[in-house]
Fold this sequence. Notes:
globular
Amino acid sequence: MEHKYRVWDKLRKEYLSAGTVSIEIHRGKNPCVKIILDNAMEVKDNRFIFEKCLNIKDKNDQELYKGDIFKHNKTLYFIEWSDTILGFCFIDITDKRNYRFGDWFTRVAKYIEKLGNINNNPELMEE
């Protein structure tokens, strides 16, 4: 299975495109992620947010990533990593309850609609 990510640049307030960023993962004694931006700058700080693709698509065939906001029935949810369950969950924006991904979600994904994400559409978090 291929692991895909998108990268949010907190400084530029935009997602990086594949042509502008190179990501290297260094393993070993001092593991780190090295970002080369615009073929020149190396950044190793907290400037970037990595959002993993879940390999699940919504009803419009859009891939879902960590941080995405979607609608199911009339409820809005966003996707987040949970350290408690050590996995991704979806959180009801209104009551903040979280739900574990599983077979149920895979079956209903074809009925949900991705509306945006928490970085580009923070106003959706205020519903």
